[in-house]
Structure formats: C-alpha cells, structure tokens
Amino acid sequence: MNGNTKMVEILFVHGALVRDGAWWWRRVAERIHEQTGTASRAVELPSCGEGAPPGTAGLLEDARALRDALDDVDEAVVVGHSYGGVVIAEGADHPAARHLVYITSYLPDIGQSQADIMSGEQDPVSFAPGDDGTIRVADYTASSFGDRFWQDLTDSEARAEAWNRLTAQSVGAFGTPTTRAAWQGRPSTYLVCAEDRSTSLALQRFHADRATRSIDLRTGHHPFLSRPDLVTEQLIEVLRTD
C-alpha cells in the first residue's frame, strides 16, 4: 500500500474482563479479509487468564503480549477496545506499529492507570474482588449487563455468547500505571461510540481529542458486534490511506 512492499496486518486488543479475543473481533476480521485480503489476529491478554493463571499477570504482561505479536509482523494497524487502549499505550511503542485505532478507548498519559482514567465516571461498572487477586463484574444478569454494554446488538445468540465470555481479570491490569504513551508521535484514529452506556461520551471525547482523527459511530460499547460493517469500513479506510 502506498508503494510499501511490507505486509500489513491488523492486531486486535480486546477490552477488560472478557476472554477469547478472536471471537469478539471475528465479524470484523472476516469482512476485512474478504474485502482486502488483510490478515489479522487477536492478542491474548494474560491478565484475563489467557495463557496465565488467574491473578498472576497485569498490564505489563498484557503489553508484553502485544509487543511479542508486533515482533512477528512487518507492520501493523493496532486496534484497541476500551481497556485495550491502555495496553496499546504501554505495548505499542514498537517500530512495527504503523497506526493505532481506538474504539471507545483511552490514550493515557505516562503514569496513568486504568483505574485513574475511570475514577471520574459518574456511573461506574459494579465489580467484586476475588480471593485470588482478580476482580469480576458483579450485580448484573445477562439481561441487565447486555442492556448496558450491547443494547444495540439484536442477535440473541451473540448476546448470550458475549455474556458467556465474561471473565475475571487481575487487579494489576487496573492499578498499574503506564510507563509509556505509544500514541504520542504515531498516527491514530478514534471511533467514538456515541450511544455507549458504559464509557461516557465526555470521557471518550477527551481521549478522542488526543488522536489524529476521530469518527462518531451511533453504536453502543461493542460496535464490532452490533455494527461490524461500520468498524470494517473505518479500518479499511485506515489501511488504504495511511
């Protein structure tokens, strides 16, 4: 692309308190591959128990997983959802990271943690601590959680599968301050989810202002589930123009 013979791939970084990243991104990944031939992969996050015992890995291990994936590609568009943006800040300071894409996510300053970022939210998600160094969502049913996080997803089977992929996550993922800000000095795109009932629009706008460009989507917190066509369109635009 643009005369560059290097192979460009997409690396997807999922959000907090879920597992099986490939499932969350599948609808977008398949469309992009069909339309452009671009390969992609989902980074597994140790803090969510992907490849690590519960409570033993935090932000730094998640960032290392991203850097290991970047080591394996020529160039990458790195896409982060929600907490995934903090992982990008810490882990995408890498020569293969060509463009960063944030979906209702965060571009933190050095020294900020996920907990710091969310501390000002007026309607925080309810969590419960475990006795193994993890936390998980609490006080939700499948219906109430879905109404908050994927209210615009009409596929009942997909809603059930999403609910079943919630998981505990290490406390260290939320409390560890970042030591890098990979978004500084790199081109970036922010997809604002204007109907998100979890991350406030004000917080999204604050972080979107730090990106090179931002686009509004009329979606909830998980547009790659509810409107994969819109996310695909924006990612293909990044692939073609960056």
Description:
37% of the residues lie in helices and 18% in strands. The protein has 242 residues and is an alpha/beta fold. The strands form two sheets. The chain has a six-stranded parallel beta sheet with strand order 2-1-3-4-8-9, sandwiched between helices. The protein has a three-stranded antiparallel beta sheet with strand order 5-6-7. Helix 1 (21-36) crosses helix 10 (228-241) and helix 2 crosses helix 3 (84-91).
Give a summary of the structure in a few sentences.
The protein has ten helices and nine strands. With 242 residues, the protein is α/β, with parallel strands linked by helices. The protein is globular and about 50 Å long.
3D shape: globular
Instruction: Give the radius of gyration.
Output: 17 Å
Helix-strand topology string: EHEHEHEHEEHHEHEHEHH
The span between the termini is: 9 Å
Mean pLDDT: 96
Counting helices, strands and paired strands, the structural category is alpha/beta
Please outline the major beta sheet: 6 strands, parallel
Number of strands: 9
**How much of the polypeptide forms β-strand, as a percent range?**
15-25%
Number of helices: 10
Helix percent reads: 25-40%
**Taking strands numbered 1, 2, ... along the chain, how are they ordered across the largest sheet?**
2-1-3-4-8-9
Question: Low-confidence runs (pLDDT<50, min 5 residues)?
Answer: none
